[in-house]
Design a protein that fits this description.
heterodimer; A: 400 residues; alpha/beta; Alpha-Beta Plaits; FAD/NAD(P)-binding domain; 4 domains; five-stranded parallel β-sheet; three-stranded antiparallel β-sheet; 22% strand; B: 55 residues; alpha+beta; two-stranded parallel sheet; two-stranded antiparallel sheet; 1 helix
C-alpha cells in the first residue's frame, strides 16, 4: 500500500499536442472516411479526428491504421500540408511513462451488451431495431441525423439512391449519341429506377411510434443474471426526449417491471406517462419480425390481458445491458485485484469502494451497473479514500 | 513512496475522482484509452431525471 510503480504506454497521436490549436482544417481536407465509433457507428468521420467536438484535450489525433500514409503506406500528408501550426508529426512514437503513485482509483467503466447474440430480436437482420446508445445518437442534435428520428432503413435507402445517382451521372458522361453499345438504354433504365426510388423517398417520415424493450441481455439467465440498473430510466428518458422533439411521437416501454428506484425517478416515470405519450406494457418480447414497410413487428404476451399480441412500430430500441469492460479481467490481473461472479471488480460489502488490494479503489460502472448520479457520488467517495491513503503514507514518513 | 494518485479511466467517474483529488492539492495522473476524456456520458444527449444536457 502507498507505493505502486506503474508503467503506462502513452499512445502516439501523430499530432503535437503543444502546437495543435484544434482548428480542424486537417480533418476538413483529410480524404479518408472512417466509421464513427462516437456516433455508435451511425455516421462517418475522417482519419484525423477529434473523438467528439467538445472533446478534451482539444487537439486532433490520427487514427493510424486508417490513415493513408501511416496505415496503408500510401503517399498523402494532406493534413500536414494544410496545418498552419505545423503540428502534424508522422514520426511520433508511443512512449513509455513510469509513475510512482500512493493510491489508485479504478474507473474503467463498462461496455454495452451486443444484442446480435439474441436471434429473436433480429438486431442484425432488421435495420430499424437499434440499441439504446444508437438511439441516443439519433436523438442528439450533434448526432448523425442532427436530432431527427430518421429511420436507419430510410437512411440506408437514401444512401443507395445517392450512390445510384452518382453512377447515373458517370454513365451519362460516357454515352455517345451515335454509338450503338447499349449505354443509352442502360442509362435510361437507371433513370427510371432512380425516379421510382425518389417517389418512394418522398413518402418517408421520421419515426412516430417507438417500442422500447427492457432487459436485453440482463436479467436473462442465458446471458447475465444481474439487473443493469439504469436502463429503465434511460428508456423513459429517451421516450421523453423523442416526444419533446416531435409531439406526435408515442412510445411503448415493454418491461417485466419498471425499476424507478432513485430520487425523483418515480415522479419522472409518471410524468413520462402523462405528458410524453409513454405507455408501460408488462410483458417480455418473444420475437421481432419485419413487415413490408421495414417496420419491426413486436410479438409478445400481454400479461395483463393474457393474450399473445403483435404490433408494428416505426422503430424498436433495445435497452442493452451494462456488462464488464472487455479488458476488465486483464486489468484485474495487472492490478492483482479480484473480480466478482459477474466479472466486475470485486468490492467489500462494508467498504464498497475497496478492492481486494489495499490502496486500490474502484468507483462507477467498473464495480457494477449504476447511473450517473451514483457514479459521481462513488467517485467523490473513492477520491476521499485515495486521499486518506496518501495522507497515511505522509504521516508514516513524517513519524518515521 | 509517493503522494500522487493514479486514476484509470476518464469517464464521468474518473473525471469526478480526479477533480476531487486535485482540489485537495494532490497530483493526479489520469489514463484514458481514447483520444478524449468523457467516456460513455459524452455520447449521451440528455440525462435523467432532469433532462439536463450530458456535456
Amino acid at each position: 500500500m502507498g507505493d505502486f510503480k506503474v508503467k503506462v504506454r502513452k499512445k502516439a497521436r501523430y499530432v503535437n499536442e503543444d502546437l495543435c490549436t484544434g482548428c480542424g482544417s486537417c480533418a476538413e481536407k483529410c480524404p479518408t472516411m472512417v466509421v464513427d465509433v462516437y456516433n455508435a457507428g451511425l455516421g462517418k468521420r475522417k482519419a484525423i479526428f477529434k473523438y467528439f467536438p467538445q472533446g478534451i484535450p482539444s487537439v486532433f489525433t490520427i487514427d493510424a491504421p486508417e490513415c493513408r500514409q501511416l496505415g496503408q503506406g500510401k503517399k498523402c500528408g494532406v493534413c500536414a500540408k494544410v496545418c498552419q501550426a505545423k503540428a502534424i508529426d508522422f514520426e511520433q512514437k508511443d512512449k513509455e511513462v513510469e509513475l510512482n503513485v500512493g493510491a489508485i482509483v479504478v474507473a474503467t467503466g463498462y461496455e454495452v451488451f451486443d444484442p446480435s447474440v439474441i436471434p429473436e430480436y433480429g438486431y442484425d437482420r432488421i435495420d430499424n431495431v437499434v440499441t439504446a446508445l444508437e438511439f441516443e445518437r439519433l436523438l442528439s442534435a450533434s448526432g448523425p441525423t442532427a436530432g431527427h428520428l430518421d429511420r436507419p432503413s430510410d437512411i440506408a435507402f437514401e444512401k443507395d439512391l445517392e450512390d445510384l445517382e452518382k453512377e447515373h451521372k458517370k454513365l451519362s458522361r460516357q454515352v455517345k449519341p451515335d454509338a450503338n453499345d447499349g449505354m443509352a438504354e442502360k442509362t435510361a433504365a437507371l433513370e427510371v429506377r432512380i425516379n421510382a426510388m425518389k417517389d418512394k423517398k418522398a413518402t418517408f417520415q421520421t419515426a412516430k411510434k417507438i417500442a422500447f424493450i427492457q432487459c436485453v441481455g440482463s436479467r436473462d439467465f442465458r446471458f447475465n443474471r444481474f439487473c443493469s440498473s439504469y436502463c429503465c430510466m434511460h428508456s423513459v428518458k429517451e421516450a421523453m426526449i423523442a416526444n419533446e422533439h416531435d409531439n406526435d411521437v408515442s412510445s411503448s416501454i415493454f418491461c417485466m417491471d419498471l425499476r424507478a428506484v432513485g430520487r425523483g425517478f418515480e415522479e419522472y416515470k409518471v410524468r413520462g406517462g402523462k405528458q410524453a405519450n409513454i405507455q408501460y406494457v408488462r410483458g417480455r418480447i418473444a420475437e421481432i419480425t419485419e413487415d413490408e414497410a421495414k417496420s419491426p413487428v413486436v410479438w409478445y404476451e400481454s400479461t395483463t390481458s393474457r393474450q399473445v399480441v403483435h404490433e408494428a412500430f416505426d422503430m424498436v430500441v433495445l435497452a442493452t445491458a451494462c456488462i464488464p469492460a472487455a479488458g476488465a479481467a486483464k486489468l484485474a490481473e495487472l492490478l492483482d485485484v479480484k473480480l466478482d461472479s459477474n466479472g466486475f471488480i470485486k468490492t467489500d460489502s462494508l467498504a464498497p469502494l475497496n478492492t481486494t488490494r489495499p490502496g486500490i479503489f474502484v468507483c462507477g460502472c467498473a464495480q457494477g451497473p449504476m447511473d450517473i448520479p451514483e457514479s459521481v457520488a462513488q467517485a467523490s467517495s473513492a477520491a476521499a479514500r485515495a486521499a486518506e491513503t496518501v495522507a497515511q503514507v505522509q504521516l508514516a514518513v513524517a513519524t518515521g | 513512496m509517493s503522494n500522487d494518485v493514479l486514476v484509470i479511466g476518464g469517464g464521468i467517474a474518473g473525471i469526478q475522482a480526479a477533480l476531487d483529488l486535485a482540489e485537495m492539492g494532490i497530483q493526479v495522473h489520469m489514463v484514458e484509452k481514447l483520444p478524449s476524456i468523457g467516456g460513455k456520458m459524452a455520447q449521451l444527449d440528455k440525462t435523467f431525471p432532469t433532462n439536463d444536457c450530458a456535456i
